UniProtKB/TrEMBL annotation:
Upper lineage: Bacteria, Bacillati, Actinomycetota, Actinomycetes, Streptosporangiales
Protein name per UniProt: Transcriptional regulator, LacI family
Alphabetized CDD domains for the sequence: HTH_LacI
Keyword annotations of the record: DNA-binding, Transcription, Transcription regulation
Domain HTH lacI-type: start-end pairs: 5-59
Gene3D superfamilies, per the entry: 3.40.50.2300, lambda repressor-like DNA-binding domains
Gene Ontology MF: a single term: DNA-binding transcription factor activity
PROSITE patterns: HTH_LACI_1, HTH_LACI_2
Amino acid sequence: MTEKVTIADVARLAGVSRQTVSNALNSPDVVREETRQRVLRAVEELGYRVNQAARQMRTGRSRLIAIRIEPDRDGINGSVLDRFLHGLTESAARSGYRVLLYTADDDQAEVDTFEDLLGAYEPDAFVLTSTHHGDLRTAWLLDHKVPFVTFGRPWSADSASASHAWVDVDGAAGTAAATRHLLDAGHRVIGFLGWPSGSGVGDDRREGWARTLAAAGVDPAGLSRATSDGVADGEKAAHDLLRSDLGVTALVCVSDSLALGALHAARSPGLAWQPGRGPGGGAAERPVAVIGFDDTPVAKAVGLTSLSQPLAQAAAHCVALLTTLLDGQADPGEPPANVLLEPSLVVRQSA
C-alpha cells in the first residue's frame, strides 16, 4: 500500500515550514505568492490531499463558495454564465476554496436552498447572479448575516439592497460604444431590440443606446422594440422595426439571442439599405448592420459583431471581495465595495 503523504512531506519538498504549508492552503493571503506557488507545486507533485473535515474543525470554515447553476434557455446566452462559473471556479481554487453548485427555479426556492445548504454543507459564502428589482435573496442573506457577493448590481433603490458587495459589467457603456461604432460607420437611424421595461440589465443597456443617439442629434423615440429573449422573438421584432417607414439601417440588440433573430430578418429580401451617393459614384445596397451583446460562441460562428463581457475578470473580483469579507479585512465603517467593468466591442462582418 502507498504510504500516505503528510504535510511534513510537502514542507520538506517545498523547503518551508509545516506552518507555511498550512498557511498557503488555509490562509493564502498571509503567504507571499512565490512561496504559495512553490507549496502548490509540491502538493501537486506529491499528490497531497487536505483532510477537509480536519481543516473545517481547525479553522471553522468549509472553504466552500456556493453558486446557483442558471437554467438553460436557448443554448446561446446561457453560455455567458457558464464562462463566469468557469472563471469563478479557477479563481476560488487559487484562493483555497471550492465551488458548490445548486439549482433553484425562483427567488423563494433559492432562499429555501440557502437554508438546506447552510445546514448540510456550511458554505462560507454565496455568489448570486441574475440580480433584479425586489431581489428576495439579498435581503435574506443580509438578515442572516451570511457573507455573499453578487455578480450584478442591486437594482432596487432601497438602502438594504445597496448594502452589499457587488461586481457588474457596465451594459450602458457597452451599448453606447456599439452605437458610436455604427454612427462612425455612417448610420443615423439606429434601432434597438431589448427586453420589456423593468429588467435592470435590459433598461441599463437600452439607456446607453438612447443616450448616445440623443447626443448625436437623433431622437430615439419609436426606434426600439421590446420582446422576450429568443431568436424567433428577435426576428419578429426586427421585421416589425425594419419594415416600418422609419428608415432603420442598423440595430443594437440587448443579447446575442435577439441579435441572431435580427440577423435573419436583416438578410431578408427587400430589407437592404442604400447609402447616399458620394461624389463620382453610385451607392450599392448594403445589408442592415446588427450588433449583439455577450459575444457568445454562436456570435463568433456566424460573424455577429457583439459586446464581450470580461467574465474571468469579474469572477476574480467576486472571489477577491469575498475573501476580504471572510478574512475580516473589510472596514465596517466603509460602504461595501463594488466593481463596475466595461465590455469590449468585437467587430465582425455583421457591422
